[in-house]
Amino acid sequence: LVVESTYGDRVHSPLSPLKELARIVSETVERAGHVIIPAFAVGRTQDLLYLLSELKRQSQIPDLPVFLDSPMGINATEIFTEFPEWHTLSPAQVARMGAMVTLVKTQAQSQELLRRRESSIVVAGSGMLTGGRVLSHLMKRLPDERNTVVLVGFQAASTNGSLLRNGTPELKIHGQFIPVRARVEEISTLSAHADQRDLLAWMGRIETPPKRTFIVHGEPQGSNALRVQIRDRLNRDAVIPRQGERFDL
User: Fold this and answer.
1) What are the counts of helices (DSSP H) followed by strands (DSSP E) for the chain?
2) pLDDT digits over 154-165, tens only?
3) What is the gyration radius of the CA atoms in the chain, in angstroms?
4) Bridge partners of 226?
5) pLDDT at 15
6) CB-based contacts of 185: which residues, under 8 Å, 6+ apart?
7) Model pTM?
């Protein structure tokens, strides 16, 4: 058996991502701040736009503007909304999602958005804050304690996203050290990766246990934590293969 270990050392929050997002947006608006959400262009961005459109429909957040400032994210979203029959969402839900968001297509429009004073929600790439237009938004918004940055995906070690997640007091962007005074929140339940509990539950339901489990796709800490749990809880042999290592099956 080969199993991933992206979240092998943690358990996702039991809170609903819809409720968490509603709380974060509402609290930020009360402070007259901006919500910056770094997001992967394909999949995660569309998830977020759907959740935000539902929160607006249910009047759980103020009707503030939502901007998508990601060229690839815009392309993926336009395809998504053009073919509503491809999705489990209803055509009405897809239409609401598309009508709710303002697409920021040019660099000039992106720069104009940075000068906006009224509260807004900005979804931008890249998801781990390693590049893309989100960096300009961070340079502008991180020093202001009224604002909030919401992490909604896995943050690999040493990325800007992981540094924010771990509470860094400043972030180096385009050669400048930017103080982090904005709030940093995380909604891990939006991730497409299962957590430790889910992985163990899935493996535990296998009727004929594998002779050996190979743990891949994870940081060393997550992989090793999952290996220990597989050994102690499931009483199975699990290994973390090294690059180039060979096994006889």
Assistant:
1) 9, 11
2) 999 899 999 999
3) 20
4) none
5) 87
6) 20, 24, 148, 149, 150, 151
7) 0.89
